[in-house]
Amino acid sequence: MIEYKGYCGKVEFDDEAGIFHGEVINTRDVITFQGESVSELQQAFRDSIDDYLEFCQERGESPEKPFSGQFVTRIPPELHRQVNMQAAVVGKSLNAWVTEQLQAAVGQSVPVKASGKKQSRAATTKKKAATTRSAKKEAAKATK
């Protein structure tokens, strides 16, 4: 993924054409971009977002915002009860608990800034790996 001004793009590589191509995935408006190199792709992505914002301004329309921060989901009543109970047990609001769970679920996905720099999760990954190794060693000792 690639990100610029709050807009996220999904990128694929077309081996036959020898180009990267992508589309903005967090808006209903269609915004695409392509390039033959990573730097060209990144520039095309930024240009496409800037062009989209300029086009909306020229037409006197508000650009579609990527996300409002709210979404409605339907779940079975029993799951709703269980989720609410779990949040209460750990002393959190339902919103705070669900937000924490969603953050943990997507923690493996790290957007790449349009500048090409990845946001670092190396320290977290190393800590998790060390914790996992330590837990495995303790489990092995317990079974002996």
Describe this structure in words.
The protein is an alpha+beta fold. It has 2 domains: 58 residues, 2-Layer Sandwich (Double Stranded RNA Binding Domain), CATH 3.30.160; 53 residues, no CATH class. It contains 4 helices and 5 strands. The chain has a 5-stranded mixed sheet, with helices on one face. β2 and β3 form a beta hairpin. The chain is elongated. The termini are far apart.
List the helices and strands in order. Answer: EEEEHHHEH
Strand order of the largest sheet: 4-3-2-1-5
Structural class of the helix and strand makeup?
A: alpha+beta
Output the number of helix runs.
4
- CATH topology heading of the largest domain: Double Stranded RNA Binding Domain
| Percent helix | 40-55%
Beta content comes to 15-25%
The number of distinct β-strands equals: 5
CATH class of the largest domain: Alpha Beta
Mean pLDDT: 80
Radius of gyration: 21 Å
The tally of domains stands at 2
- N-end to C-end Cα span: 46 Å
What global shape is seen? Answer: elongated
**Low-confidence region ranges:** 115-139
Q: What's the architecture of the largest domain, going by CATH?
A: 2-Layer Sandwich
Biggest sheet, open or closed, and with what strands and sense?
5 strands, mixed
